[in-house]
Design a protein that fits this description.
heterodimer; A: alpha+beta; 25 helices; 9 strands; B: 1 helix; globular
Chain lengths: 793, 310
């Protein structure tokens, strides 16, 4: 046992090739690192709105078909006057300039820009000989008390109070829709550039009595990208903490440096390959490189631990670091490759979720983890084989203590026999039940009103709060697209009546603030043609009256398309919480089920029939994403676990062993969902993969422990003895790795990004609990499942 | 003028033929009915009834504090006016709709409905449980002497097809009708003959009230006209208001509270106007009802109460 084991079979074959050509390989890998580091440095942050969309989803088909009525990628810039009254010269000057500034932001759809200064915002006024319309700000605008009175009344008549103008007339807002691609060049717009332009607008117009508040997807991306810079500092801090603790563990700077360098090499390669594949890194995926680093460290520590053990075992005065490295390599190649392959396959399965940003994450993580096989299972032992120390014996003496099993480890080893084994299993069953029930509370989608990726007190979230307090409408909306025959709004009373009835039904749904659709304007304009008599606010059955009412409505109002066969019904919701959105979506579906449109034999709509299609608008997009995320969660876990189970079965050829490895992992996955429910972290595109990634981290522990345990059991030891021996080396490394990484990511709680803080908590939780599961529950399950191994306990 | 009288029985057969062309829908019960467009309000005994868009009929038994929506109202069109005599209540509206309740507004039946006519009824007046008028667009003047079981379909004038916006009856039995484009109609013989009178203002008048010694018209762009000779001659009352005035009620024998578009509320007394005090949201008000020291204002966002300063 104490003699170095000669590697045989595949591991031996690899060993001889690799170690014989050590220098060439190290040189090649070094050259590769330099090359990929160059590409990695070119890697750009790449954010996009469309890549968050589940394009296969029914709603997104509507979204892509009716580009005009998307209204999801909108920015809102509000100017608020400190005095509480916007009617002053300075405010109006600023508002006009600010509107222009928004129009000229690259990527803004200029026709979509709306404010009191844009010509697409008009009012209607009744006069003796009919009715008159005009821009809210008269063309002869010159600041005066009477002019401001006129504007105030125009604002009310235009029906924009609460939308473009604050309820209390203490501020006004500019709306603009962004295009994902520049219509001229076809190039993707640069969200960070837009975010910067928005921030420039804030700097320019804020102060001297006014404040500027900006919300919208582009601003979220910008703020997250800004916050992502601090992510780098936290990465550095986590690496530093890892290094310090690793030094305490390995007692050598070289042994500290090598696993860290090798793990960083994996990250550099990963980023280099991403660039070579033509990809960028999304701000929401910025944690993946760190994950790769963490998994790398986890394997690196096992390697260091194995190497040190071999060094200690070699006789005094006769230390051979090359032999130790070869032996450690041989022993760890199989479990390491299995663990990393199950990670790789597991992460690759995430690719089947058809949301581009998640697919990007799947690629990023898969590539990164696969590369660890080279950096930490090959490069690291090669480096270790060349380690030279002044005094091997003195170095090894430091570890002599570890040969004895201390009290703590004896205690943990107790889980490989009763009573602790039974206790652990019972506690696990209890936790399964509790976590399962608690996990049901986990929200799909956002559970808070603001943006959960940013701190509640961040500028963005306070801006969002301010805007939703001062303006009743405009932030969260679901557009239901009403499709009917051409010219329906002037030729089909029935179609308009159907749309109007639908709108009224939606208005009565809890969580809906207001519904806006063309039929309401038709009524108001009909009343307008009847001298503004409020009693005429009804849809006319007369085609002449309908034409008179609606022919003047331009498509830039967003209320209709060119031939008036498509009219969106815009449902403004109180917020974008998943529960609110679900209620509205359910109501739309129930309405459609109750009054389905009558079709002709070819499946076309009969005259006056209307098809209400879900959905565009920001909350409509969220509804579809929530749907997909909810539907993807289970299949994703099944695929990840399927990959792990398959590989474990193939490697260990043991059903009981596979159960002992997978059950603790599954328990921690469930507990992670329960924790998310407890912390109010909703399951959404950005958080969906985290549990799968957590499985990837945890599986390493189980596989290393079981691999050693199994080989010791095969040599005839009973479970308790074998497990005690397993803990001495592998267990110690697992405990150390989990604590180190847990502490490292634990510091993220202080990140300015709520998203990073949340991920820090979740990852630390999973690092540590997976470790506990592997050290405590795995042997307990083995005790219960492998009665033969109990002999002599 | 009454020579081309046509009496149409609202018989079942005819109704069936209409429902084939346009099946009228029963009004839907919705929580926000109370906050939707309300156009007319009246007292029915100790209760109140108000009507508005989508066939909404609401009733209150506590002076307008709480309201409940009446189920199974047979239409879902805009109802423009509600009038009551004892426990009989009639509401009229678009699609030439007349609905009737015999039990103070709890249950309703359809009396007349003819969407193909494309005429909205705009107002009504009943002088007893049986006798009443319904008026509407294009000079339409309906009358009944049997509580609306049958309606006499007529026009107010063979040539003038102006919209008839509001009708009232003075204590001495004369009828006054506010109409479109500077026209006013009156009947000094209890509805036997009608007479058109041109007003000094060319705009439309949306409402008419008869005081003991005055007839008051109000309407387009804040215009108010007064007559002391039963509508023969008219005098304009100066207001600097440009909002339409839609509804009014008596505050006292000689004081009128008028309401209208963009939150317009003013008190008229002897050719003088004062602005009714109180905060205003800028809503369009369609009608008002005075009860005790409260004014119940109704309009595009439903109803609200406002205390009347003593």
């Amino acid at each position: 046992m104490n003699q170095p084991i000669q590697n045989t079979g595949f591991a031996g074959f690899c060993e001889s090739i690799l170690f014989k050509n050590k220098k060439i390989i190290i040189f090649l890998l070094f050259a590769m690192t330099v090359g990929l580091a160059y590409f990695a440095s070119q890697l750009k942050v790449d954010a996009g709105f469309e890549k968050q969309l589940p394009l296969d989803h029914e709603y997104m088909q509507t979204f892509m078909e009716h580009e005009k009525f998307r209204g999801a990628n909108r920015i809102l810039v509000s100017l608020m006057d400190d005095s509480g009254n916007m009617f002053n010269e300075q405010f109006f000057d600023k508002m006009e300039d600010m509107t222009d500034a928004v129009v000229f932001i690259p990527g803004v759809n200029r026709a979509s820009v709306k404010s009191i200064f844009t010509p697409n915002v008009r009012f209607v006024e009744v006069v003796e000989d009919g009715f008159a319309g005009g821009n809210v700000i008269p063309s002869n605008y010159a600041p005066s008390k009477t002019m401001f009175e006129t504007i105030r009344s125009n604002i009310v008549k235009a029906g924009i109070l609460g939308r473009l103008v604050a309820e209390d007339f203490n501020g006004a807002m500019v709306w603009a829709d962004l295009q994902e691609r520049d219509p001229q060049t076809g190039e993707k717009v640069d969200y960070q550039q837009i975010a910067k332009a928005l921030e420039d607008i804030r700097v320019k117009f804020e102060g001297e009595g006014q404040t500027v508040h900006i919300i919208g997807f582009a601003k979220i991306v910008g703020d997250i990208a800004d916050g992502a810079k601090s992510v780098l500092y936290f990465f550095a801090l986590a690496i530093l903490i890892t290094a310090i603790l690793l030094y305490g563990y390995s007692k050598s700077w070289k042994l500290t440096l090598y696993p860290i360098v090798c793990s960083l090499v994996a990250v550099i390669w990963q980023m280099g390959f991403l660039k070579l594949m033509g990809m960028g890194i999304d701000p929401m995926n910025i944690l993946t490189p760190f994950l790769v680093f963490a998994i790398g460290v986890s394997h690196g520590v096992q390697m260091i631990s194995g190497w040190t053990d071999q060094m200690v075992k070699q006789g005094d005065g006769n230390k051979n670091s090359d032999l130790a490295a070869r032996t450690a390599f041989g022993a760890l190649l199989a479990p390491g490759v299995i663990a990393l392959l199950s990670d790789t396959i597991g992460f690759a399965t995430i690719y089947f979720i058809n949301i581009e940003i998640i697919q990007e994450l799947a690629i990023t993580a898969t590539v990164g983890v696969a590369l660890i096989i080279i950096t930490n299972l090959i490069l690291l032992p090669l480096l270790l084989s060349g380690v030279k120390m002044k005094n091997y014996d003195a170095f090894c003496a430091k570890f002599a203590k570890r040969k004895e099993t201390s009290g703590v480890w004896k205690g943990i080893a107790g889980f490989a026999k009763n009573p602790l084994a039974s206790l652990a299993v019972l506690v696990a069953i209890g936790l399964f039940g509790y976590s399962y029930i608690k996990g049901q509370d986990m929200q799909i989608g956002d559970s808070q009103a603001g943006v959960p990726e940013l701190r509640p007190d961040s500028r963005y979230n306070t801006d969002a709060m301010k805007i939703s307090n001062e303006f009743s409408l405009g932030v969260d909306m679901i557009n239901v697209i009403a499709e009917t025959s051409s010219n329906a709004c002037t030729e089909s009373y029935k179609a308009m009546k159907n749309i109007d009835r639908f709108a009224w039904h939606m208005e009565n749904v809890p969580g809906v603030q207001k519904v806006i659709t063309l039929s309401q304007f038709a009524k108001i304009i009909t009343a307008g043609w009847n001298e503004g008599n409020i009693k005429w606010r009804e849809l006319s059955r007369n085609n002449y009256v309908m034409r008179q009412s609606l022919s003047g409505i331009e498509t830039d109002t967003g209320l209709l398309n060119q031939d008036c066969s498509v009219m969106p019904v815009t449902i403004f919701t109180e917020d974008h919480k998943a529960t609110t959105i679900n209620t509205v979506i359910a109501a739309v579906k129930a309405y459609q089920a109750e009054v389905p449109p009558a079709l002709d034999d070819n499946g076309g709509l009969l005259e006056g029939e209307v098809k209400f299609r879900l959905a565009t608008g920001n909350a409509g997009v969220m509804a579809s994403t929530n749907d997909v995320v909810k539907g993807a969660q289970m299949p994703m876990l099944i695929m990840v676990y399927g990959a792990i189970i398959l590989l474990c079965l193939l490697t260990f050829r043991s059903i009981t062993g596979t159960i002992a490895i997978v059950v603790p992992l599954a328990l921690v996955s469930l507990m992670a969902y329960a924790l998310m429910a407890f912390l109010g972290i909703g399951l959404k595109v950005n958080t969906l993969p985290v549990v799968a990634l957590g499985v990837g981290i945890g599986v390493d522990y189980g596989i290393y422990i079981f691999s050693r345990l199994q080989s010791l059991l095969k040599s005839g030891q009973n479970l308790y003895v074998a497990y005690t021996e397993t803990l001495r080396l592998t267990g110690r490394a697992v405990l150390f790795t989990a604590l180190t990484l847990g502490i490292g990511v634990g510091t993220w709680i202080f990140s300015e990004l709520q998203f990073q803080a949340d991920m820090g908590i979740l990852l630390a939780f999973m690092f540590i609990l997976n470790m506990v599961g592997a050290l405590v529950l795995l042997p307990a399950l083995a005790y219960w499942l492998m009665p033969k191994a109990r002999k002599g306990i | 003028m009454m020579n081309n009288k046509r009496t149409i029985l609202a018989c079942v057969g005819l109704l069936l033929s209409w429902t084939q062309a346009w099946s009228q829908n029963v009004a839907e019960m919705k929580p926000l009915a109370e906050e939707s467009l309300m156009l007319s309000i009246t007292k029915v005994g100790a209760s109140m009834v108000m009507v508005g868009e989508r066939g909404h009929v609401l009733k209150s038994k506590d002076d307008g504090k709480t309201w409940y929506q009446i189920p199974n109202v047979p239409v879902d069109v805009v109802l423009t006016k509600v009038v009551a005599y004892n426990n009989h209540v009639w509401a009229v509206g678009h699609d030439a709709t007349i609905i009737h309740s015999k039990d103070a507004g709890e249950t309703w039946e359809l009396q007349y409905y003819d969407p193909d006519r494309e005429v909205p009824f705009l107002s009504a007046h009943f002088s007893s449980e049986t006798d009443g008028y319904v008026i509407g667009a294009y000079g339409t003047l309906f009358s009944t002497t049997d509580s609306g079981d049958t309606w006499n379909d007529d026009l107010i004038d063979e040539e003038l097809d102006y919209h008839l916006n509001d009708i009232t009856q003075s204590e001495d039995g004369h009828y006054y009708i506010a109409a479109e484009a500077g026209y006013f109609f009156r009947s000094l013989d209890a509805g036997e003959t009608w007479e058109a009178i041109e007003l000094p203002y060319m705009g439309s008048m949306f409402g008419v009230l008869a005081l003991t010694d005055q007839v008051v018209l109000y309407g387009l762009r804040g215009n108010i006209l007064v007559s002391e000779d039963q509508g023969e001659t008219w005098e304009e009352v100066y207001t600097d208001l440009s909002n339409n005035l839609f509804g009014a009620d008596l505050l006292s024998d000689n004081q009128i509270l008028m309401v209208g578009a963009n939150g317009a509320r003013l008190i008229y007394q002897d050719r003088n106007i004062e602005i009714f005090p109180g905060a205003d949201s800028g809503d369009d008000y369609a009608d008002v009802l005075i009860t005790g020291n409260q004014a119940i204002l109704i309009g595009e966002t439903g109803h609200k109460s406002q205390a009347i300063a003593q």
